[in-house]
Design brief:
With 222 residues, this protein is α/β, with parallel strands linked by helices. It is built from nine helices and four strands. It has helices at 4-18, 37-57, 59-70, 79-100, 104-109, 113-131, 159-164, 171-182, 186-204; strands spanning 24-30, 141-147, 152-157, 220-221. A hairpin with a 4-residue loop joins strand 2 (141-147) and strand 3.
């Protein structure tokens, strides 16, 4: 995902940002926030129903096609055999789509954007609760989270920061993150985002003389 140089640059950016503020920046990057296997199953079920609908609205065409393929000229179809054929077509459609959806890029492509957004946010929130929320004495932790496959990012702040800084203030940092992901330079995007988050934190939470480093500066890869 990143080079060792990228990791070192991100950690150095976090250290520099925290040297000017009481904020504690946690950086996390992940290849993908969710496998979306339920989405793949939903598409397979959709293919099954579409096959049955096609049989319902064009039975003559479907039965004629199978007659030509199998050489069943003038075959007299009985209700039981028609039902069996329909179920067979539906089963083939389900299995074929399920196998296609095992290919991760296709599964990701066919996952609706709102679902991606919700899953990335949920994973980022879980990481925040584990790695940053209420982990500092002043509740000044902030998470910068990047999910590469979905090309999405999240910035989530702890209680003290959220009470003073509106979410839209992180817009420039978020833009830097997304630009870096889309251009294939996630490391550059993360460094820029850390620097911009650090500037905001320095304005609202200047570093005290007795301030200590409470959270790791290194990039966390999950």
């Amino acid at each position: 995902m990143l080079t060792e140089t990228d990791r070192e640059r991100i950690a150095a950016a976090v250290t520099a940002a925290e040297a000017q503020s009481a904020g504690e920046i946690v950086t996390i990057i992940t290849p993908q926030s969710d496998p979306y296997r339920d989405v793949g199953l939903a598409w397979a079920i959709t293919a099954l129903f579409l096959a049955l609908i096609a049989m319902e609205f064009a039975p003559t065409f479907a039965l004629g096609l199978i007659e030509r393929m199998l050489g069943l000229w003038g075959h007299q179809w009985q209700p039981q055999s028609v039902l069996g054929f329909a179920l067979g077509v539906a089963a083939v459609a389900f299995v074929a789509m399920a196998l296609m959806m095992e290919w991760r890029p296709l599964r990701l492509l066919l996952t609706p954007a709102p679902i991606k957004h919700a899953r990335v946010h949920a994973r980022a929130l879980t990481c925040f609760r584990v790695g940053a929320e209420s982990r500092t004495a002043g509740h000044t932790g902030i998470l910068i989270y990047v999910s590469l496959a979905e090309r999405r990012a999240e910035i989530i702040a702890d209680q003290a920061i959220a009470s003073k800084v509106a979410p839209e203030v992180w817009g420039d940092a978020m833009q830097a993150l997304l630009s870096g992901i889309r251009s294939g330079a996630a490391g550059d995007g993360m460094v820029s985002a850390v620097e911009q988050v650090g500037q905001v934190l320095a304005q609202h939470f200047p570093r005290a003389d007795d301030d200590t480093n409470e959270l790791p500066d290194r990039l966390i890869e999950v």
